[in-house]
């Protein structure tokens, strides 16, 4: 099936919380919610997933489907600093955002502003440099970004990526919507993710469609609906039934 998304057709937009995002001009789809890219990422991936796990673990193995703009990775770097845990961050990206696009994104300033509102006592240094490093670090090998953040980026489709078994305790499932990429929301794909997750792991996603819930259940997950970020009634948290 031919993709409805043209990975050259990027346009930079400002979302409601002042942070940037990228949209595809030809179709109504983008990398984040127009109601606020940074606020959405915190609401869907950090608060109901990473934060819960960081409260009980000094070391976390995070898997992200879709590195994209690097926003989730940057926020995770900052939360790891705040929460004092070490993160091994693996992310899979088939169509990297070109440098003339990612260098225009205002995520260093937007994330520092948002994080200062949440954690007024924490000082964040060199976040613009960290954001650049997340993008420029090589594909296919580990890069030590700091003593609390090790990055491994795979330049691959999720379907072709080889994932270690029973490893990840945090999964950010951030694929484009099922109407654009139905092949990424199937029980077969979720089974591969399930096998890569540890028994106490959490997966979160912004998508709460019926077909997605059924595919997750068929793959062995227990699912829970949570209130969605601004502009979305619901989102999903899923935990693998293991043991
Ligand atoms: C909704 S965006 C992710 C946004 C990203 N997490 C961020 O913070 O900017 C979906 C991402 O998945 C990538 N993608 C699309 N198809 C893919 C595939 N089959 N395997 C891996 N990545 C894919 C896209 O290039 C895009 O970067």
Summary tags:
globular, binds S-adenosylmethionine, 28% strand, 3-stranded antiparallel sheet, 243 residues, 7 helices, Rossmann fold, alpha/beta, 8-stranded mixed sheet
Question: What's a quick, concise take on this entry?
Answer:
This protein has 243 residues and is of the alpha/beta class.
Structure description:
- This protein has a single domain (10-96, 104-240), classed as Vaccinia Virus protein VP39 (Rossmann fold, 3-Layer(aba) Sandwich), CATH 3.40.50.150.
- Helix content is 31%, strand content 28%.
- The chain contains 7 helices and 11 strands.
- It has helices spanning 37-54, 71-83, 99-102, 107-118, 127-136, 187-196, 210-218, and strands at 10-14, 20-24, 29-30, 59-65, 86-93, 142-146, 149-155, 168-173, 197-205, 221-227, 234-240.
- The strands form 2 sheets. It has an 8-stranded mixed beta sheet, sandwiched between helices. The protein has a 3-stranded antiparallel beta sheet with strand order 1-2-3, with no helix packed on it.
- The longest helix has 18 residues, at 37-54.
- The structure holds S-adenosylmethionine (SAM).
- S-adenosylmethionine binds at residues 31, 66, 68-69, 71-72, 92-95, 157-159, 174-176, 181, 184.
Q: Kindly report the average pLDDT value.
A: 95
Q: In total, how many domains does the architecture comprise?
A: 1
- What CATH architecture would you give? 3-Layer(aba) Sandwich
As for the CATH topology, it is Rossmann fold
Overall strand count: 11
Distance, first to last CA = 37 Å
Percent of sequence in beta strands: 25-35%
């Amino acid at each position: 099936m031919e993709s409805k998304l043209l990975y050259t057709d990027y346009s930079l937009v400002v979302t409601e919380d002042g942070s940037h995002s990228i949209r595809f001009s030809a179709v109504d789809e983008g990398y984040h919610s127009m109601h606020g890219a940074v606020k959405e990422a915190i609401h869907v991936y950090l608060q109901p997933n990473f934060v819960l796990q960081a409260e009980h673990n000094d070391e976390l193995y995070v898997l992200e489907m879709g590195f994209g703009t690097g926003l989730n990775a940057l926020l995770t770097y900052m939360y790891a600093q705040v929460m004092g845990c070490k993160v091994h961050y693996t992310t899979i990206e088939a169509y990297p955002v070109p440098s003339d696009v990612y260098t225009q994104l205002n995520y260093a300033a937007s994330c520092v502003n948002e994080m200062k509102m949440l954690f007024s006592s924490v000082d964040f240094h060199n976040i613009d440099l960290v954001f650049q490093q997340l993008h420029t670090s090589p594909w296919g090998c580990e890069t030590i970004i700091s003593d609390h953040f090790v990055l491994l980026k795979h330049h691959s489709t999720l379907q072709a990526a080889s994932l270690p078994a029973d490893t990840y305790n945090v999964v950010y499932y951030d694929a484009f919507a099922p109407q654009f990429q139905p092949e990424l929301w199937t029980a077969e794909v979720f089974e591969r993710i399930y096998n890569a997750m540890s028994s106490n792991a959490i997966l979160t996603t912004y998508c709460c469609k019926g077909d997605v819930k059924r595919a997750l259940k068929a793959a062995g997950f227990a699912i829970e609906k949570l209130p969605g970020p601004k502009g979305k009634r619901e989102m999903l948290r899923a935990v693998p039934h293991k043991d």
